[in-house]
Amino acid sequence: MWKGFKVIDADAHMHEPQYLWERYVEPAYRDQVPKVAFMDGAFMVYEPDGRIIPKTEKQPKLPATAWADMEAKYGDGYRTWWSAETRLKDMDTHGWDVQVLLPTGNNGNFAYRVALKDAKLGAAMCRAYNNWCRDYCDADPKRLKFVAVLPGSDTDAMLVEARRAVEELGAVSVRNPFLPEGRWLHEPEYDALWGLACELDFPISVHGEYRQRRFHPFAGGNRGNVDDRDMQMLALRGLDHALGFPCDNMATMGQFIFTGILERFPKLRLGILESNVGWVPFWLGRMDEHTHGRNSVMGNAVERLPMLPSEYFKRQITVTCDSDESALSYAVDHLGGDNIAWNTDYPHPDAPRPEKALPDLDAQSITDEAKGKILWDNAVTLFGSRILE
After folding, report:
1. Residues forming beta bridges with residue 45, ordered by sequence position
2. How far apart are CA 240 and CA 2, in angstroms?
3. Exposure winner among 199, 337, 347, 381, fewest CB in 10 A?
4. Which parts of the chain are beta strand (E)?
5. Residue 102 pLDDT more than 70?
6. Pick from 88, 109, 89: which is nearest to 44 by CA?
7. DSSP 296-309
8. How far apart are CA 222 and CA 35, in angstroms?
9. Tens digit of pLDDT for each residue in 127-167?
10. Using CA atoms, how far apart are residues 336 and 2, in angstroms rounded to an integer?
11. pTM higher than 0.85 for the full model?
12. How do strand 204-206 and strand 144-148 relate by DSSP bridges?
């Protein structure tokens, strides 16, 4: 609780432990998981195994500046590798009642990437990650909630794991499946997942899937003496991060709407996470014009959409905001305070400082009624009754 407001952090993160796979993957698959060579800040960097990771593949490595402030920023959280106990203490300190937890980078997210190359191994790793999440959240299951990951390359395995994660492990959402090259979310075989989400009443979490073309294959650096090319690549990494999350989420949101998924599944809910909300008024207007306005001559989406895209959005989609984003008040005014939830991105290196997250929201020129919706009501609408259990 903070200044009388109940608070749900709708998009926080794990920093999964290095031992995740060796302790949680089923024995039959354990020796098939690429070994973790070292931790780069909070990310696992794997040894190329020639099968899942090509021997010639250059492993991502962020600049040292990405990690330099971690201990000063998170204190005991960093020193105990964000154990559930220190996380809960931080939540008490900063007034966060509930956190919804997603995986990080090449850690938990590695499972669904592996599934694109080895469906059975990837499914086993997804199960392992989700099982670890359940153990982690058991420290206080009323306050710590998690989003499950799914193997998108095997539809049957994906459905089995989605049901298990929600019904048996208590996941409040599943991450939007990462599909094999050339496959699309609107294809009929994925209708079963959207139907399951409606049946079990859980949302799909869309979190910067990077389905679209990126500026660079890898921005290297961090070698001490950095040459001009490295500096340019690091600059493009920053540009990629600035564009990647909102632009990719815009595209994914548009796909759910334009291809008729939300029309066919009116009870399906989407959480659009970690991409700000300042772009939302522009994108809703742009989509409306391209289905029912003058730009609709560029396609025939209106034949499948009896409602405006903005109406599907208001009925079925919630976007998370950052406290300090400059365009937040415009989005809040445009939406009347609805369809926006709040997030901290804790404990990532580029997240807001924990002690400033709620004060920065309080400093925004938005009403207390809107703050109450953003901090609690809209997240409950998104995640449903499981967030309160």
Report:
1. 38
2. 34
3. 199
4. 8-13, 36-40, 43-46, 98-102, 144-148, 173-175, 204-206, 270-272, 317-321, 340-342
5. yes
6. 109
7. GGG--GGGG-SS-H
8. 22
9. 999 999 999 999 999 999 999 999 999 999 999 999 999 99
10. 22
11. yes
12. unpaired
Rounded-to-integer distance, Cα 357 and Cα 99, Å: 14
Task: At 297, list the tokens.
Answer: 């001559």
Neighbours of 316 (CB within 10 A): 21
Q: Which two tokens stand for residue 129?
A: 């990650």
Name residues whose C-beta falls within 8 Å of residue 179's C-beta, 6 or more positions apart in sequence. 152, 153, 185, 190
Q: Which two tokens stand for residue 386?
A: 């499981």
Work out the angle at residue 180's Cα, subtended by the Cα atoms of residues 202 and 148, and round it to the nearest 5 degrees.
Answer: 25
Average pLDDT score over the chain: 91
Q: Residue 219 — pLDDT band, cuts 50, 70, 90?
A: very low
Closest CA to 323 of 292, 361, 294: 361
Instruction: Tell me the two tokens of residue 190.
Output: 């994925």
The structure tokens 């291809």 sit at: 259
344: its two tokens: 């901290």
Length of the chain: 389
